[in-house]
């Protein structure tokens, strides 16, 4: 189990889009991958949980978190082999940890927590809540955006992660992200 949550060694620059639901992480991930002619790692939880909703009409439960984490790292490790100098990650295990704690009264599986803290990235882009919230089958916290943003930010600060807040429209966010990634390459 544990080995399935570790990153494979890589010399790539890795950046993570990090933040509350419906804040543009997937959009900016795709834009950055196009800009840098590289691949991006989608959020495995979306596929996993959409299938669960479609098949069972159930939302995420605590026992889903380790399979989600395994799927996320499996995707990341596979796409690491296809990336150029840069890998764009739509999420990471630290985000899974944040959601686990937010939804399950502060609880996070110790194995998930270990790898959420152990896996490394060069830079996090914390997506601000200045984008319109869009409903879908999986999103459920339209009235808790400020609290969730604060929790994501506190997590990055608590674990001393290198991060930049992305604000503004799509063009502003993309420009800010490119400016910071270019410094890493």
TrEMBL record:
Give start and end of each NadR/Ttd14 AAA domain.
Answer: 14-173
Name the InterPro entries on file: NAD_biosynth-regulator, NadR/Ttd14_AAA_dom, P-loop_NTPase
The alphabetized UniProt keywords are: Nucleotidyltransferase, Transferase
Kindly indicate whether the keyword Nucleotidyltransferase belongs to this entry.
yes
Q: Which Pfam families match?
A: AAA_28
Task: Extract the GO molecular function terms from the UniProt entry.
Answer: nucleotidyltransferase activity
Q: Which domain of life is it from?
A: Bacteria
Matching PANTHER family, A to Z? NADR_TTD14 AAA DOMAIN-CONTAINING PROTEIN (PTHR37512:SF1), TRIFUNCTIONAL NAD BIOSYNTHESIS/REGULATOR PROTEIN NADR (PTHR37512)
Q: Identify this protein by name.
A: Nicotinate-nucleotide adenylyltransferase
- In which organism is this protein found? Flagellimonas aquimarina
